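ASSEMBLY PREDICTION REQUEST
Request ID: AP-0331
Submitted by: J.K., bench scientist
Number of chains: two
Total residues: 1242
Priority: normal
Notes: Please return the full assembly, not individual chains.
Input sequences:
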Amino acid sequence: MNAIDPSVSRADAGDLRVIKLAILAIGGQGGGVVTDWIVATAERNGWVAQSTSVPGVAQRTGATIYYVEMAESDGRQPVLALSPSQGDIDIVVAAELMEAGRAVQRGFVTPDRTTLITSSHRSFGVLEKTAPGDGIGDAEAVTGVLEIAAQRLLIADMEKMAQEAGSIISSSLFGALAGSGTLPFDRESFEETIRESGKGVTASLRAFASGYEAAKGATPAPATLHAPAATPLFDAGPAGPADLVDAYGRLLARIEGEFAPPVRSMLRSGLQKVVDYQDLAYGSEYLDRVADLARLDDPAGEHALSIAAAKYVANAMAYDDVIRVADLKTRQARFERVRNETRATDDQVLTITEYMHPRGEEVCGMLPARLGAAIEARPKLLAWLDRRVNKGRRVRTDTIRWFLTLYALGGMRRYRRALLRHRHETAHIEAWIEQVRAVSPRNHALAVEILKCRRLIKGYSDTHARGVSKYDQVLSAVPMLVDREDGADWLRRLREVALKDEDGVGLDGSLRMVAELDGTTQTAG
Amino acid sequence: MAERSFAREVEKLRLGAGEDFSGEGILAVTKALLQSGVGYVAGYQGAPISHLMDVLADAQDILGELGVRFEASASEATAAATLAASVHYPIRGAVTFKSTVGTNVASDALANLSSGGVLGGALVIVGEDYGEGSSIMQERIHAFAMKSQIWLLDPRPNLTSLVDIVEKGFELSEASNTPVMLEMRIRACHVHGHFTARDNVRPTMTTAEALASPRRDTNRIVLPPANFAHEREKIEARWPAAIDYIRRERLNEHFGPADGKIGIVLQGGMYNGVIRALQRLGLADAFGESQVPLYVLNVTYPLVDEEFLEFAAGKKAVLVCEEGQPNHIEQALGLMLHKAGSDTVLAGKDPFPVAGEYTGTVMLSAIRSFISGHAPALLTDRYRSPNDPSGAGFEKILADNVPVRPAGFCVGCPERPIFASMKLVEKELGTHHVAADIGCHLFSSLPPFNIGATTMGYGLGPASASAFNVKSDKRSISVMGDGGFWHNGLTSSIGNAVFNENDDVILIVDNYYSAATGGQDIPSSRADNRSRSTNHPIEQAVRGVGVDWVRTVDRTYDVTKMRDTLKEALTSPEPGPKVIVASSECMLNRQRRERPLVQKAIASGERQVKQKFGVDEDVCTGDHACIRLSGCPSLSVKRLDDPLRDDPVAAIDQSCVGCGNCGEVAEAAVLCPSFWRGDIVHNPTAMERRMARLRTRVIGWLQSRRASRRLAFAKAA
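STATUS: Completed
Returned structure:
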């Protein structure tokens, strides 16, 4: 690509080489700092440098662009442009992966000349985060594009480097720019600029060094770029009382003995989840349920039904209840995680406040099934109970009193099977499995999709109720779809609509469409 | 003033003759004002000229030494009215604001000023927010200049030219008794460059001296019959005087060969872009030596007929490079050619697009197309046909995956919980018509909140809901920031609502600063300001104009209270406007103010508590309802390394400032128990340490007890 006559694209009229550099960042990332540093470094070396930017509202979390042009002049002032032009940029520095993608989109990265230096980390856009399901953009696909679009791509997790150095990303990006060799200045003059800035110099220089080395290729290409390969959770095997470990081993052996190889990995994850949730007997129940369902699997297929069952039956059995939350919140590992995340040191005291908001339903669910059901059957009584408990509660789990309360709640695990919530959940699971069993012989693919609809049920309180209602609505279409060849496709589409649609408006529309579809089939048939 | 120091910039204002000034364009203009012997400066902050205001506000010492009066005006109208000091007195004055929005507000005063004319030079520095990054309607300032007959300067965007034109602008104003506008484009404001400084100059007359010996002249007042005389004076005396000065001082410039088949007429602000396009076509060198004749209009109004006709004479075609629309300059030049009976072809908005910014790409393709059409021999083959990079087929991948990044509230912003509360009220009482205003709170109209239907102007939020003041089951809600409130809202919105017996809900967001423009102080700011009077409560002002129903929520992070107050306002049977003042300090400014103090206190061994929020990833189910009520940059998502999980879970990163919104929202909206707050006690007391040790021991014992009776997996699923 270098072979193209550079004067064609550079078009600096041959007399003076102007280096053009664009910096793409997100508001608040310090794009302005890097820009000032670059200008200062160029001027330190006797170059003429000009920078501009349009920091408007984009300073508040939007995408921002800074632009620098520089030239080694003989004292005369060259005329430099104030905005970047498509196809006319030598160096693009992006402070986030998708901003590098945006640079390509805007035509600032071209294969004939542009060195693209980008951080591989992601800072998600608000719409990626608010999606009820998974709305995250495909980083790998975009990275693939960057490789094609740029003449040279330097990519590494500069955010991580900066954090590890106790600095901000502008320092590691500046280091990577220095290390890329695209600017004819020595390392010392870059570092001198940082020193002169006077703030957080040591940390900045550390981050600078990481960026520099990464660009020089001294450190291996970043493996962090792609999502880490799923490491099997069972690898280490559980620790604990010998009898429990043995019994768990027997359950693992069941997996090896009773299930086809492609299903086993998911089963091991599922087993771990339900045993951790309840006990070994529960694990055994789980394997029974999946084994039952696996018998329905299409032997010619790729065990799609078994894998879906292994995954969603585990999730369904490990439903989120008060006991589970209390159990998780009082564990040692959790206390350690909180300590790490707050970066509290040993000579600091850390207190933990939990935000709980129990409702009458949750309290009822915690009661023995008959008692709970009796209250639930009396709306006035339930409303009275709800009034008593339904309010936000902040509890300090680092205090003995509240820790004990949650610890005791977590300890109710052993009575869980006798409680009302469990009865509800079990009934729900049984009905779901029954539906799969009924549909499977007539429309196998649809049965797999029914299993996957379990994904719609998640969350607590209102969120959970909304999830159940969406699940019910989506599955209400099954009778209309069961005899259609494309029935599974439709159910999958309905589920996807339901996932994305918080208020249910889109789902209603899609359901009507399915109903009409059903009508036309009938008239056609 | 936002606890941010501009001391380094202020030092640059002290540079003396021959010293090298290095910095941004707008700061160069600020220095140029002092070099020109300005007697007073006023203005209203806004991108891209906030810097001028911020720096001068911190430069009280220098201003005092020189006898220069500086004022942070209440609005652009106030700023423009300040120029009245140059009507009867030979004092140079400058005002600044953002255009075109500020000019809209200022136009009453500007029209009166330019009718009567000025004795001392009057300069209006408008920060033009047009094109990329702009947050306002895309309009030109040019029409304002024409309608009131204010001269319009549009200099080449390098620091030397900018500084020179300030001095010349004052002289032009004085020579023609006409106010002058200096159009500063956003990139020119922020361009980094150098110029050689001159000494600051004391004004020939200070405003204090003027007060000591007052003057008046009825002929300068806009009243009949003087107003009719003003119009004639504008045409018969001021215009020719201006033309004379512009020609004499050569304010407009010529570059390139004296003769040529074609030429380009351009606004000064377009110069660097035009040169870059010519460079890319092989028609100019790096230093701007052009092979095409250029006529650079550093003054875009008035146009000098003789100069242009001389330039056009003998040319086959002339291209007008004029950004924005309508194409006032092109129309005027066309008329000149027509009247002169010239057969020179005039091109402008074709090949240039009628609307939109003249980016490098637009510039290149328009100029290439003009030259190919009218002087193809100038272009060698390789420049004639565009080297269009063909799509490599990855546009779709990028379009599908590169996220839009709408502007949003900062980490810990106190406005976030206000709109989260509003969403919660919406869920209970249905959606309402929400009229928005100008300011940070307008981000509520973008994801994730999607609240707010219109924005009609600064301080006009409640005014823009006036038509909805009718009997209905639902009330309208209008939102206004504290900046808008003091700018115009107190009278145009609140006073109007009282007077018209408005029954609707007005929410005033009080974050202690004019936050969107950079955190300047306003009358209700809480900080003590050395040279301004602050601490005037909004509630008092609102009651003062006759509102009876006022509720102040003095901690917006209290989502439950915020929600209940909104509900009360929407349902209260009481007549008259229901005004809620929601107050909490802008987090950006608060952090800037508090962080160094906290660090210092910790370092000196003082007990300090820092808070941070987190999410229990095994409790979070990945529904993201919390994010839909937040949008905080620090509240993000992450994928768990767990094959059983389909969806990413919520996660809070290290930028969290512990504002409390996450917990409050989870509580008020009954979301989930995943959130926790960690209070990190720095330099705890001995008692605290003992207590913590005891707790850790007991809790640790209980934890090991339970752990010893169950299986421990290497990583909990």
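REVIEWER COMMENTS: The domain at 7-248 of chain B is CATH 3.40.50.970 (Rossmann fold).
SIGN-OFF: pending second reviewer
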